[in-house]
Structure formats: structure tokens, C-alpha cells
Amino acid sequence: MKKGWRIISLMLVMVLFASMLAACTSGAGEVNVGIVLPTKDEPRWVQDEQRFKDALADSKYTTEILFSQGSSAKEKENVETLINKGIDVLIICPHDGDAAAAAVEAAKKEGITVISYDRLITNTDAVDYYVTFDSVAVGAAQGQYLIDNANGSNVPLYLYAGAASDNNAFLFFEGAWKVLQPKIADGTFKIANSSEAEALKDTADLTRDQMSKILGQVTTNWDPNEAKNKAQTHLTAASNDLKGEVVILAPNDGTARAIADVFATDGDITSYTVTGQDAEKASIQYVIDGKQSMTVFKDVRTLVTDAMGMAVTILDGGTPETTGSYNNGVVDVNAKQTDVIVVNQENVKAELIDSGYYEAGEFTGL
Asked: Taking the model in full, what pTM does it have?
């Protein structure tokens, strides 16, 4: 009988120990900062993942990074997963700015501070902060580069844009249009591939609805394949006076390379100037080789540092510093803005190699 009691007592101790261990493990598994990024299919976001990990490597705080793979439903599921892990701060780059509203509202109800990262979450008051590059300035830099490299008049201008679901696509286009429009109106440029843009060529400040109509014709959805198909369609339909020496507003590096490849194979295109952004490794090689004219370098190291610095300040009980604000359709969201740099063949080594962003050995022809 005594032996039986000893076995029962031992079992009770083991159950109690297992319960304590589970409780400790649960506590240890809690995450302070949850990060949701849009997709693993673009180099930019994979690079961000590692930089976020590095940014908290020496911190007492923990983080978990999840990818939404271009799905708003998966994005919402990711946010719910992180809420259940006890996060205090959510850093999220939305796949679709409008659709992400429901996900961050769920986080806000749990008292979680929401930081919109790189892309603004729209039409909700559940966003506390926004960490971004000056997106209007990105578009303006792209547009100005085309102006600076155009010769003569009636230069064919091919317009392309990002995804209509991404608020940044509108900001990039807004910035580009502001500098390009006077040169379209005075005949320096002739719009080659958008009847909506042609109809608005004398309008300096476009409304959101007017931009939507243009984007409806020239969106790439940030997809290089879609950009390639659109470029092929546009060139097939273009008359000879819309070929020769042309300029191309491409919204980012992935679409820029795809579009450039199409234009480079058309025998009636004598030269092209094409913009980009993000300083993707493949595009830097294109810039070195003369296949892509420029890229707008957004030093993601700074953006990640700003986002994580903001998160740590919040976790420490402080109030983050901001440098401006953006209206998301419901509220003005306080923002921390990071500057951008135009990179071309002339300064690519100084800006990207000498600064330590990339290694010289990753490229040929430097």
C-alpha cells in the first residue's frame, strides 16, 4: 500500500512539474514585437527580414516575423497568430492598405501599438505610427531624372505604376506627375500608352479618382511578368512616332528590368531611359551594364532602424519622435520619414559599395 502511495505521489509531483514547465515555456515563448511582411517572393522583403532580426539581436526584446505571401487573408491570420503570442507592438507592411485595416483593428482592440511600415494602412484609426521613405519624393526623383535625360520635343513617354491596392503607388505616381506634367503640357513629352493620362495632361494636381483612372491603364501590380506583358502590348500598338528615343517611368526595380528587356528587343527603339527604385542587386547590375538608367536608393537599413527604434521606445514606455504625418482617409498618422538617393552609373560605387550596402564582388564591370 505504501508503495502504491509513493507511485501516486511521484506521479503528482511529475504532473505538477510538467505544469510549471509548460507555464515557464509559455512565458518564455511570448513575443514583444510582431512583424508582418507582404511576401517572400521579392528580394526586398527577404533582406528586410534579416535586418529586422539583426536590429534586435542585442536587445532584451523578442520578435517574430511572418510573411503574408500576397494574401490579405493570410495577413490577417498572421496578425491573429502574433496577437495570441502576446505582442505589445505590431510592425506591418500591408499587402493591401485597405484590407489590412481589419487586421490592425483586431490588434488595436488588444492594446497593441500598430506601426505601419513602408506602406500606409488606410481607412482606419487603428494605426499609431508610420515609418516610411518620402514616397512623393521618390516619384519626383524618377520624374526629374526623365526630364534631365530627355532630348528635344514630343519625346514618347511610357507611364507605368505599382499596384492600385498599395497607397504608395499613388504617392509615387503623384510625385512623378507633379514634375512631369508641365513638361507634358509644353510638348517636351508625348504620352504613349495612357489615354486617361493624355486626357489629363493639362491638370497639374490630380485627384485620387483621376490617378485611379490612369493607374487602371498602366498598373503593373508590382509584378514583373505583368509589366513585361503590358510593355509588349503597348509597343505592339505604338506607331513609329511613339518609338525611337523614349523615356519610361517604371515604378520599381523588378518592373523596370522586365520593361527594359522588352524595349531593348524592339528594333524601332533607338534608346530608352528607364527609372526604378529599391536598389535591388539585379538592378544595380543592370545600371552598371547600362540596361537600367537609374534606381532610387531607399536605404532600408535606416528604415528598419527607425521602425525598431520606434518599437523599443514604445516598449520602454516612451513616445517615439516623428517628422511629419500622412492622412490615411480617416486620421493623420504621425510618421518618421527617411530620405532617398538617386543612383546611376556615375555614383553607384560611392552610394552602394563604399557605403557598405553591397560588396563589390557581387557585381561585374564596376
From this structure: 0.74
